[in-house]
């Protein structure tokens, strides 16, 4: 009989499949877990790289298809990814931590490296993986299953699937893992693969079916890494992230990933609690045959935006009224809402995305309030700003609470001296995303069992 926890992710899939338009609230499987500090902690490091956002997320935000778009531009700036060490088959490997993907995969020894731009074979070193995975005696290969996934910037991976013994933060499980034997990849020289913490409905396992002489892949839902941990290791069905920015005193940045609890960091005692929204892909793509892709999506009430006078006074002249969510407490601050969506905004919470993506109008408002204002660069289609500019005071309203973004996180350096990339960009008509820029300012709790997310403000660090 299937364990109830093993089904908790799949229950969200059912809710999502029924959502014909917009996002619906994911059904809770359990009561909310307590915000208790856990010893199951994974230390993270961060290094420069463009985002690892899969095409499911990037496609919704309508930014992955353009080779000259924001994600491609990030490859020339200090976009960052977050890495952790996970042991597979008794050997530790460094992997990217990504809440926007469900798959966990490793690049295999002897894999074929393919150019993302030409599709031709190139030297293995060009894919720039870290140490490659050598199949261990504990690997159980699964005949007939294939692994295929596409990411932004034409990155693709394919291979096989198998069950491997994995150990993370002192917890050991037998987990289905993608074994990559062909990769079109822009690597970072350190990571050997990726740890996906998303729902199973965005996984990339395929069963090779053959009907009437025609072979085609059928997408399969399988129990992803975190759900397996809940079942086999017996931890509460929640994890939390406390990402840390790079500073002169902490050049590798990083942060903490806590499994089954929260990490021992300083944070506000007050949490904003909002339900996880289950989104049907049919909402974004009515022609999709299987409307079941799921992400961690929350409703954002609005945004507080105000220019800061370099002389020290705040300029209120360009702030717009906040459209508060029903039942939200009255706020004295003023703010702008996502006018393109028309009221409260559904936003993906994704550690695999560097920036914050908002509607075109909201992003334009935020960027106009830099002093001097940011400029929209055609070609790369991004907002750039003088690195000496004063960033606006920008906050995100969630669950009636306001979370400010530290001014240090409002721009990223580029290779052009004195030119920075604004970390608030337009989504181009797709769904909005709260990426690492937001996550570096909060303790984010993903309570999957209760179908809710909780956010607490971080103390300055």
Automatic annotation (TrEMBL):
Single GO MF annotation: aspartic-type endopeptidase activity
A single GO cellular-component term on record: fungal-type vacuole
Positions of the catalytic residues: 98, 350
Signal peptide: 1-19
Region (Disordered): 311-335
Keyword Ribosomal protein: no
Biological processes per GO annotation: proteolysis
Domain Peptidase A1: 82-456
A Pfam family recorded for this sequence: Asp
Origin: domain of life: Eukaryota
Signal found in the keyword field: yes
InterPro entries found in the cross-reference section: Aspartic_peptidase_A1 (IPR001461), Aspartic_peptidase_AS (IPR001969), Pepsin-like_dom (IPR034164), PEPTIDASE_A1 (IPR033121), Peptidase_aspartic_dom_sf (IPR021109)
Entry keywords, A to Z: Aspartyl protease, Hydrolase, Protease, Signal
Stored PANTHER family: BETA-SITE APP-CLEAVING ENZYME, ISOFORM A-RELATED, ENDOPEPTIDASE, PUTATIVE (AFU_ORTHOLOGUE AFUA_3G01220)-RELATED
Family to which this protein belongs: Belongs to the peptidase A1 family.
Protein name: Acid protease
Source species of the chain: Glonium stellatum
């Amino acid at each position: 009989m299937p364990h109830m926890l093993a089904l908790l992710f799949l229950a969200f899939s059912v809710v999502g499949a029924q959502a014909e338009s917009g996002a619906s609230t994911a059904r809770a499987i359990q009561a909310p877990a307590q915000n208790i500090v856990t010893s199951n902690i994974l230390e993270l490091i961060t290094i420069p790289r463009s985002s690892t956002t899969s095409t499911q997320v990037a496609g919704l935000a309508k930014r992955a298809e353009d080779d000259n778009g924001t994600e491609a531009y990030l490859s020339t700036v200090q976009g960052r990814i977050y890495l952790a060490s996970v042991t597979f088959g008794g050997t530790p490997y460094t992997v990217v931590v990504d809440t926007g993907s469900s798959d966990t995969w490793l690049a295999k020894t002897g894999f074929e490296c393919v150019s993302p731009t030409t599709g031709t074979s190139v030297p293995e070193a060009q894919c720039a993986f870290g140490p490659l995975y050598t199949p261990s005696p504990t690997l159980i290969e699964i005949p007939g299953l294939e692994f295929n996934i596409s990411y932004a910037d034409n990155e693709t991976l394919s291979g096989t699937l198998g069950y491997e013994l994995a150990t993370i933060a002192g917890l050991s499980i037998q987990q289905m893992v993608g074994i990559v034997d062909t990769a079109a990849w822009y690597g970072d020289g350190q990571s050997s693969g990726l740890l996906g913490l998303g729902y199973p409905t965005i996984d990339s396992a395929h069963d090779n079916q053959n009907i009437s002489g025609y072979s085609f892949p059928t997408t399969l839902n399988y129990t992803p890494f975190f759900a397996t941990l809940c079942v086999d290791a017996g931890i509460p069905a929640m994890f939390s992230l406390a990402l840390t920015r790079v500073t002169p005193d902490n050049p590798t940045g990083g942060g903490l990933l806590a499994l089954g609890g929260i990490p021992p960091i300083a944070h506000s005692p007050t949490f904003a609690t909002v339900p996880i929204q289950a989104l049907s892909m049919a909402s974004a793509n009515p022609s999709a045959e299987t409307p079941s892709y799921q992400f961690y999506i929350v409703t954002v009430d609005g945004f507080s935006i105000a220019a800061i006078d370099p002389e020290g006074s705040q300029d209120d002249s360009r702030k717009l009224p906040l459209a508060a969510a029903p039942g939200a407490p009255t706020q004295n601050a003023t703010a702008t809402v996502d006018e393109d969506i028309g009221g409260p905004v559904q936003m993906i919470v994704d550690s695999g995305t560097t920036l914050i993506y908002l509607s075109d109008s909201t992003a334009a408002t935020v960027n106009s309030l830099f002093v001097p204002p940011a400029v929209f660069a055609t070609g790369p289609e991004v907002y750039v700003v003088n690195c000496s500019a004063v960033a606006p005071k920008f906050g995100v309203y969630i669950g009636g609470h306001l979370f400010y973004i530290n001014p240090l996180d409002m721009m990223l350096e580029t290779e052009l001296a004195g030119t920075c990339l604004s970390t608030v960009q337009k989504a181009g008509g797709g769904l909005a995303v709260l990426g690492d820029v937001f996550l570096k300012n909060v303790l984010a709790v993903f309570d999957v069992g209760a179908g809710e997310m909780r956010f607490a403000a971080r103390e300055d660090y």
